[in-house]
Design goal:
Length: 140
Amino acid sequence: MFKKETTNAIQNSKKTMERNNVAKNTSILGEIKSDGDFRIDGSLEGNLKINGRVVIGVDGSINGNVTCTNADIEGKFIGELIVEEVLTIKSTANISGNITIGKLSVEPGAIFNAECNMKGSGKQININDTKKPEKFEKTS
């Protein structure tokens, strides 16, 4: 009884422990899906869907769509990025595109030219719903 549950837990932890790497001077064109973490030190043009952490190294670049749990960006990213939890942008990063995140951390020096939407950020403000100030009359 316990042996089967322990075996399943070990197998599930191994899935998330997998680390995939795209080495420097390597280019990939296409779509990548993985249950493990992914590090890009080369270049990817296409889509990346990861159930884990994506790391774009200093020399790495992605031009495409990325969906992941967490992301650390030190290199270049252009496209649509969806991060379920935390996006960490390092000082060497250069990001352009549309970003949807849970939480954001940006180091000084990073280039961040993106439309950014934070999920769960509470009430959204609509500038068309602002109240007009009331008029006061002066009485003597």
